[in-house]
Design a protein that fits this description.
2 domains; about 35% helix; 8 helices; 5-stranded antiparallel sheet; alpha+beta; Phosphorylase Kinase, domain 1; about 15% strand; Aminoglycoside 3'-phosphotransferase, Chain: A, domain 2; two-stranded antiparallel ribbon; about 260 residues; Kinase-like_dom_sf
Length: about 260
């Protein structure tokens, strides 16, 4: 804070960060509200330096940065506040899908992490899903088919951590924050994660609003089902019983559609 000449400010509510980075509301030397992200990655700093200006979506302005060994801090302009996913309107979803389609059309860039690269262990998958997903064995047996479906569409430029907590609404509309996982990847991963993260709150994301052909639609279905079955058990403990029950019901519906 001393090096970047900022001071803390009070903010109601909690800022989420599951990447290990800390995000703190601050005030700059000239009195402007901003956010200090401590524990950011050089990959994210590269995005702000190399691609943010060309982005077709709104991105927080990078006001300053600090690199001390492997530690990176980003000073970002205040972009607005997230809207609870239960309060999202049809207009907001339409704006998001328009912006995502434009982002996905960008030329390839440095790859971010694959959201399906670190699945939960078999024991965790069995423990969470065996009582709740009657077709679990079919899904486990279809793992190679799921992977083939998600990689079938051409690569896209992806945000990498697309959920409504990373999409604050500012005076000019939606702003895309947290670019730590941005880069060349799968459009289906952005869309599937958006749905997975909204499901515990009882929100069904209107994914049909995203412009996609049959191949990408199949990839989105396969990716979301794979995320739920192979990834969600790692995070189930952070959610309420009601939220997990909604996740399980969503998986049952997706499995019925995918395996028919």
């Amino acid at each position: 804070m001393r090096a970047l000449r900022v001071v803390p400010r009070t903010l109601d509510g909690r800022l989420e960060s599951r990447s290990g980075a800390g995000v703190r509301p601050v005030t700059t030397a000239d009195g402007a509200p901003a956010y200090l992200k401590v524990g950011a990655t050089r990959h994210e700093l590269r995005f702000y330096r190399e691609r943010a200006d060309d982005s077709p979506v709104r991105v927080p302005a990078l006001l300053d940065s600090l690199e001390l060994g492997d530690d990176v801090a980003l000073l970002l302009a205040d972009a607005g506040r997230p809207v609870d996913v239960t309060q999202w309107t049809d207009v907001m979803w339409a704006e998001l899908f328009r912006d995502l389609a434009a982002l996905h059309a960008l030329p390839p860039w440095s790859s971010g992490p694959d959201p399906l690269s670190e699945p939960a262990g078999r024991a965790a998958v069995e423990s969470f899903w065996r009582p709740a997903l009657p077709r679990l064995d079919e899904i486990l047996g279809a793992a190679d088919r799921l992977r083939a479906d998600v990689v079938a569409p051409p690569p896209a430029f992806v945000h990498g951590d697309c959920h409504t907590d990373n999409l604050p609404y500012g005076k000019d509309g939606l702003v895309f924050c947290d670019w730590a996982a941005a880069g060349t990847g799968r459009a289906s991963s952005d869309l599937a994660l958006l749905s997975v993260r909204a499901t515990p709150a009882g929100v069904t994301v209107p994914l049909d609003g995203y412009p996609a052909g049959p191949e990408l639609r199949r990839a989105i279905l396969a990716e979301e089902l794979a995320m739920l079955v192979f990834e969600w058990p790692k995070y189930a403990g952070y959610n309420t019983p009601e939220g997990n029950a909604r996740i399980q019901e969503r998986a049952r519906r997706l499995a019925a559609s995918y395996l028919r």
